[in-house]
Automatic annotation (TrEMBL):
This is Myb-like domain-containing protein. Residues 5-67 form the Myb-like domain. It comes from the Eukaryota. PANTHER family: EXPRESSED PROTEIN (PTHR46929), MYB_SANT-LIKE DOMAIN-CONTAINING PROTEIN (PTHR46929:SF3). Coiled coil: none annotated.
Amino acid sequence: PAVEWSIDEDAELVHVLEEQKRLGNQSETGWKNTVWSQAANAIAVSFPDAKIKKEAKHCKSRWQRLKGLYKIVKGLRDVSGFGWDDATQMVQAADEVWDRYLE
């Protein structure tokens, strides 16, 4: 089955990675392999009732996905006509701006 992530699980993953970065477990080329196991363990402790237990490989894959989504959102924010709504934490634009963008 597909591994589903909640917003809170995403936040915990980011929190663990921030802590691991402070501890020096991120190199120029990426994260040390032990980081993903530590992230999986932290998520298991924080979310013991999750439908599917997140493994190290799931954490690594999710991080790659989150980075990709970040790049998309960052790119949209740089396009004329798009803005950011702090309340909803979402990119916003008028329908005609979206229509032009999606052409």
